[in-house]
Design goal:
With 66 residues, this protein is mainly alpha-helical. Helices cover 26% and strands 6% of the residues.
């Protein structure tokens, strides 16, 4: 039987793509709270990304498939 657990997600916004790539290279796969972390570019924009563009999002829908 599988139980639903929180996957634990975070959006981190960098002003420069190069800094984001450096962070990904240096941190991807490193241990964090007993698990190795997986870092990738977001498939959707975070609230912070919209705010950086001067847009205030009204709502967001988030979900994970299986």
């Amino acid at each position: 039987m599988r139980t639903k657990k929180m996957r634990g997600q975070a959006f981190i916004v960098f002003k420069e793509r190069e800094r984001a790539q450096n962070a990904m290279r240096s941190l991807n796969g490193k241990p964090f709270l007993g698990k190795s972390i997986r870092i990738s570019f977001a498939k959707t924009k975070s609230f912070a990304s919209y705010r950086n563009e001067g847009v205030e999002p009204l709502f967001a829908v988030s979900g994970a498939s299986k």
